[in-house]
Amino acid sequence: MPELDILHPTREVPLAGGSVTVHELGWRDALRFTEKLGVLLGEFTAPDGRLVITVDKLVQTLTRSGDLAADLIAKSTGLAPGQVDALRPVDALALLEAAIEINLHEDLLGKARRVGQALGRVLGADRQPPAGAGS
Predict the structure, then answer these.
(1) What one-character DSSP code corresponds to residue 87?
(2) Distances in Å between the alpha carbon of 19 and those of 16, 66, 79, 95?
(3) What backbone torsions phi and psi does residue 57 show, to the nearest 5 degrees?
(4) What are 20's strand-pairing partners?
(5) Which of 28, 46, 73, 127 has the greatest CB tally within 10 Å of its CB?
(6) How do residues 32-50 score in pLDDT, each as one tens digit?
(7) How far is CA 68 from the centre of its chain?
(8) What is this structure's pTM?
(9) CA distance 122 to 107
(10) What burial letters (b/e) apply to 68-106, b meaning 16+ CB within 10 Å?
(11) DSSP string, 42-64
């Protein structure tokens, strides 16, 4: 049986009052988080309409979106919302950095893109509408 640490990575983040463990989100929390992140997709849309997601753009968007960042910190650490709100800014950013690195890495984003592309193919998003449709 594989080591659980490999399947669910964690990282200890030293803070002023001790350390906090940041862990990978469960798949349902990850889906909820990406759904909320989807609201901000305008940040990731190229002029030609292509979706361009990079870790740098995600970091910028998350740091500008306090609620989304706080939710990611809470879900990936198990801290209560009040505890997250009470964090010093430097500690919150350290936890956010670790949460992003564990939960939003390029391999995961690539898989998410492929799932989206597969859904587009299955749902016919890449097909032209029939002649005369919409007239």
Answers:
(1) S
(2) 8, 22, 12, 10
(3) -65, -35
(4) 13
(5) 73
(6) 887 777 667 667 777 777 7
(7) 9
(8) 0.67
(9) 23
(10) bbbbbbbbbbebeeeebeebeeebbebbbbbbbebbbee
(11) GGGB-TTS-B---HHHHHHHHHH
